[in-house]
Amino acid sequence: MKDEIFFEFDDLQAILRFGHGKLTDTCFLLLNVADVAAARQWLSAAPVTRAVTAQPQPETALQIAFSVEGLRALEMKESIIKGFSDEFISGMSGDESRSRRLGDVGSNAPEHWDWGGEPGRAPHVLLLLYAGKGGIEFWKKTVMDPLFSKAFRQLHILPTDDIGSIEPFGFADGLSQPAIDWQYLQSTDLHERDSFSNWVAPGEFVLGYPNEYGLYTSRPLIDPRIDRLAARLPNAAEDPSFKDLGRNGSYLVIRQLHQDVPGFWQFVDRMTGSDPEKREQLAARMVGRQRSGSPLAPLAARDIPGILQKDRDNHFTYELDPRGYRCPLGAHLRRVNPRTGDFPTRVTGLVSRLLKTFGFGLKRPDEDLIASTRFHRLLRRGRPYGPLLSPEDAVKPDAPAAERGLQFISLGASISRQFEFVQNAWSMSSTFGGVQQERDPLIGIRQPLRHGEATDFFNQTDPKGPMQKTCCLPQFVTVRGGGYFFMPGLRALQYIAAAPMTEGD
Ligand code: HEM
């Protein structure tokens, strides 16, 4: 335990700690700065919701984040901007090789996006507004006062809809989240983390704190002797003679993901000869959970008395299902969080560790191919959009097509090691965990590899016989927009809102 670390929750934006689940109505806005002075004035008094536990719980919430273009529009000095991570500065759509790695090719390519696809021209500000049932219009009017209207130009209102606690394909969502170990009770030492734990060091999500490596991720550190405005920022933990613009903030990734709900259900219906039971089973196997949220992987043997159903449904790893007989190896859930520890399951004891460390004695492909999960967790805060369409209606040939999907949002202290890694090395990979010719059955693209090998299969191992292959999956999810943002702590927001001094002041 690191005694010196305690969290100033009143300096963190609430969304880092709470999902605002009870605030069912939302409005996500993309803005550009229209008048710098007015924007600064509005930001300095913005009613941003903090991560404190309040009773009664707030009836509304406001969170705010900036793209690198937004920080530049607010005249942040380049000498400070260069302290942010490379991928934040480059942006989600700013580099062809990044787009390729994220699967943003073909119909997913940034040139087809509704927003955020023009390199170097990302929306400046992302504003997330939350309210209880029926309360969002009033909250919008309160937040978007005359000064706001002078300060910002509204580019897009990202659609969001309350369809309950499911995502548009109809599966229970928001069940699994990493638990942030705010008090650093769990060791991050390599030798003590053989097996999966859902507890993760705060520095994986909150900038300026030690992460699972015991290190800090990129964010600007400012010398207060050169920049007097920085004096009120928190000290940098690594070097208290510097001020930390990132501390208590986070990087926010947002992607608008269109879901072809009739396309998904009609495909699984066709593949299962329109047998409703088999259809449910195939769909669940592609996700890794039943529609109700029950996991396909066996729950951990040791049950905890009094545990909530939601937590019970999350109390599993894939140790009891190493060959994917229950939950296929390529299922969405298994890819985005393989729940691995630092060493494969059967590696215990010094000799076994040494053999593994030097790469000897591997018997199964999945023993070596999946990186330790604790370095690649995502805090998900997305919301769905579009009209509800039940699977039973979606299979009908005249099922209404509509814009439906997910405003996928994830928070983390390293965009490249968390969101980009999960998206690229796990979801889009056609060799994840020893699988072949397939990518994520839900969110994967289906383009063949460069040498022509197909990637549009979904394979299920079968203890009773040969692999069951489902071929020619269409692409069910298409990217409509996206961007990388910095969500500052409250003191950092004041720094951003203050007029900067000239370079070298
Ligand atoms: C429209 C696109 C998507 C759909 C329909 C979808 C659907 C789901 C569903 C139904 C679950 C199970 C609920 C839960 O465990 O909380 C889930 C879990 C999850 N998804 Fe997705 N997802 C989508 C996109 C993504 C993307 C783009 C990522 C990351 C790159 C991602 C990462 C995760 C993670 C980390 C989990 C939790 C897994 C676990 O901890 O066991 N998802 N998703």
Automatic annotation (TrEMBL):
The keyword Metal-binding applies. Its cofactor is heme b. One of its GO terms (cellular component) is cytosol. It comes from the Bacteria. SUPFAM superfamilies: Dimeric alpha+beta barrel (SSF54909). InterPro entries: Dimeric_a/b-barrel (IPR011008), Dyp_peroxidase (IPR006314). GO terms for molecular function: heme binding; metal ion binding; peroxidase activity. Keywords: Iron, Metal-binding, Oxidoreductase, Peroxidase. The keyword Cytoplasm does not apply. This is Dyp-type peroxidase family. It comes from Syntrophus gentianae. The lineage of its organism: Bacteria, Pseudomonadati, Thermodesulfobacteriota, Syntrophia, Syntrophales.
